């Protein structure tokens, strides 16, 4: 298992992630994405303790939902904060409408177990799949 060294430094980040997956019918994708990108993400990132968020759309897979958001947090405390509660109570016609489009939702909060601090970064430069691809295309 890799260890943080001068050759493989760690990146300081939050120790908690929240993973949220959602399914929305295709006819509501545009409005759902507008709400998530323009209202929900900026609003949540105003809460102290939220570090970052990244969104993804499923390309292939089984047993998973179309949209995924990975939220990085310093720890789980922002999820129970007064700021979070205030945001839940804030009126939003767009949010209320979009919530009705969500057909499935899954959420999990995870605490980092390795490395104990930061993130392992592989700077070795060795990527077997790239070496294999270059060998296959060589004359």
Q: What features would you describe in this structure?
A:
This protein has helices at 29-45, 82-89, 93-99, 128-137; strands at 10-11, 16-23, 50-57, 67-73, 104-111, 119-120. The protein is α+β, with helices and mostly antiparallel strands and 139 residues long. It has one domain (13-137): Alpha-Beta Plaits, CATH 3.30.70. Strands 3-4-2-5 form a four-stranded antiparallel β-sheet, with helices on one face. A two-stranded antiparallel sheet has the order 1-6. The radius of gyration is 19 Å and the shape is globular.
How would you describe this structure in keywords?
single chain; 139 residues; alpha+beta; Alpha-Beta Plaits; four-stranded antiparallel sheet; two-stranded antiparallel ribbon; 4 helices; 6 strands; globular
Brief overview, please?
30% of the residues lie in helices and 25% in strands. The protein has helices at 29-45, 82-89, 93-99, 128-137; strands at 10-11, 16-23, 50-57, 67-73, 104-111, 119-120.
């Amino acid at each position: 298992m890799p260890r943080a060294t001068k050759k493989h430094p760690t990146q300081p980040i939050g120790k908690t992630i929240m993973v949220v997956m959602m399914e929305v019918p295709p006819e509501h994708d545009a409005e759902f994405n507008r709400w998530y990108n323009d209202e929900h993400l900026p609003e949540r990132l105003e809460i102290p303790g939220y570090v970052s968020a990244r969104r993804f759309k499923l390309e292939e897979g089984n047993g998973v939902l179309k949209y995924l958001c990975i939220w990085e947090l310093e720890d789980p405390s922002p999820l129970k904060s007064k700021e979070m509660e205030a945001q839940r109570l804030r009126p939003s016609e767009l949010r209320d409408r979009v919530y009705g489009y969500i057909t499935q939702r899954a959420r999990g909060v995870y605490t980092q177990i390795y490395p104990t601090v930061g993130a392992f970064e592989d700077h070795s430069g060795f990527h077997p799949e790239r070496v294999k691809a270059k060998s296959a295309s060589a004359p």
